[in-house]
Design goal:
The protein has about 300 residues and is α/β, with parallel strands linked by helices. Helix content is about 20%, strand content about 25%. The strands form 2 sheets. The protein has a 7-stranded mixed sheet. The structure holds zinc ion. Zinc ion binds next to helix 1.
């Protein structure tokens, strides 16, 4: 199984268009020890022919062009066999709109995510312009499902996050909270990988799952709980936004036997700076920081 990280940043990417925090400013000035990153996006294949996307990021058009195995082999062809969504947030789902052009696509997501995207936004009707253009396959939180005939099996885990802030409260009240944000464990024969870009806490059963994996890709949004309060003054704490801070994850996620990688990294996070003490601390604890183009073989 190949996992290619096409994007490793949180929403807004790095640098973010309207941000001049220490990281974004120094990157633009060429004074930063680290690289730019696009928004979190994975591509996974068991046979190097059919690929499954995990999330559909707003940077998807550029990300597909940057990875030749995802280029079409003919007119109106794509090696993309399906798209699996963790949630309905803009940075996880906007890319679906970039996969229009009358191309049949298969999308795996929860019923709540489908309703938020398709029933509440007329823009998503671009995916319905011809019969059979989009096929939604319902993910039931906690249940396992197969990705087509690829031999890849996915177990979904509800991570108890909230529906996106843009969903009106009256609507959110009628959606299942369990269907808002998912993490996934991918399995192929005896290989396993976890993808939890949104992790609000560490439950014992999730930790037990991670301990069975050859690689874990987990929420690296913020280093500390008050990171945005320090850089942006008025913002919320990391935990309030559904993100366990990296410094706490390092302490809580123990006895993992596989590779440990942080993904979904916000542009304010000091771990992006390879000269920072936070980056050194994470490396010393055996963790890696995901970057665009990172390749993982299981
Ligand atoms: Zn910034």
């Amino acid at each position: 199984v190949q996992i290619r990280i096409l994007g490793a940043a949180a929403g807004g990417a790095f640098p973010q268009w309207n941000c001049s925090c220490a990281n974004c400013a120094r990157l633009r000035q060429g004074r930063f020890s680290g690289q730019a990153r696009s928004q979190t996006q994975l591509a996974v294949s068991a046979d190097a022919r059919d690929w499954f996307l995990f999330n559909a990021s707003p940077d998807l058009r550029y990300q597909l062009e940057a990875f030749p195995p995802l280029h079409p082999q003919a007119t109106r062809h794509t090696p993309i066999a399906g798209i699996v969504l963790t949630c309905a947030e803009v940075d996880a789902a906007l890319g679906l709109l970039l996969l229009r052009e009358f191309q049949p696509i298969t999308v795996y997501c929860t019923e709540s995510v489908r309703r938020v995207l398709v029933e509440d936004n007329t823009l998503f009707q671009v995916l319905y312009r011809q019969p059979g253009q989009v096929t939604f396959i319902n993910i039931v939180p906690g249940a396992a499902f197969d990705l087509g005939t690829s031999g890849l099996r996915v177990t979904s885990v509800s991570t108890a996050g909230g529906h996106p802030g843009f969903v009106p409260k009256a609507r959110a009240d009628h959606l299942s909270p369990d269907e808002a944000v998912l993490g996934f464990v991918l399995e192929h024969r005896d290989h396993r990988a976890a993808f939890f870009p949104n992790l609000s806490r560490v439950q014992p059963d999730w930790l037990a799952l991670f301990q069975t994996c050859d690689v874990v890709l987990v929420d690296g949004t913020f280093w500390s709980d008050d990171e945005l309060i320090r850089t942006h003054n008025t913002a919320k704490k990391a935990r309030e936004m559904g993100h366990l801070p990296v410094e706490e994850s390092i302490a809580s996620l123990t006895d993992l036997r596989g590779r440990k990688i942080f993904i979904h990294i916000n542009n304010t996070n000091p771990i992006l700076d390879e000269d920072s003490p936070e980056h050194a601390k994470l490396r010393n604890a055996g963790w890696e920081v995901a970057y665009d183009g990172m390749k993982i073989i299981l």
